[in-house]
Hints:
Order of helices and strands: HEEEHHHE
Structural class: alpha+beta
Strand content: 15-25%
Radius of gyration: 34 Å
Amino acid sequence: MANTPEAAPAPKKSPMMMVIVILLVLVLAGGGFLGFQMMSGDGKHKEVKPAPALELGSVVDVFGKNDLTIRLNDKISYLQTNVSFAFTKSFDVKLLKDSIDALKSAVINVLLTKSPEELDTTEGRNAVKKEIATKGNAIIRQYIPDLPIATSAVHMSDPNADPLDSNTGPIIQVYFTKFALQ
């Protein structure tokens, strides 16, 4: 035979190299699939929307034009005050007609448990306001059990606004419109 060049033997493919290439292809394909699913918005990943801001609505003077005068503990200390509640904008204050006496009683009961020293500081009064709001909201929910609960801690766009006394509503702010401690 004539001088025919013999074909060079083909290099052997390593089985380990084949496994690595297959794994690499599978990882890239899986990553691409997951990325596509996340970008396509197939409903599995819902966008989280921020809770709506709690907006102040009606303000109701709990005791009307009458002041509340109570003797605190067994000391010779008296508190003369008037309390108003600020409700969420969505709350209909007409629903209070059945619970107003229970709300008044709750305010009185909270105040009667406090010492003059507790009420004489800003921190003490703020703690009392939060306690009154919590008890008031619980009473309103007893009278209106299907009342939705707001869960937003965000309120008003004014950064200088008072912090909320309750983040759940319907009472979100308690105001002492008169406060005299003797």
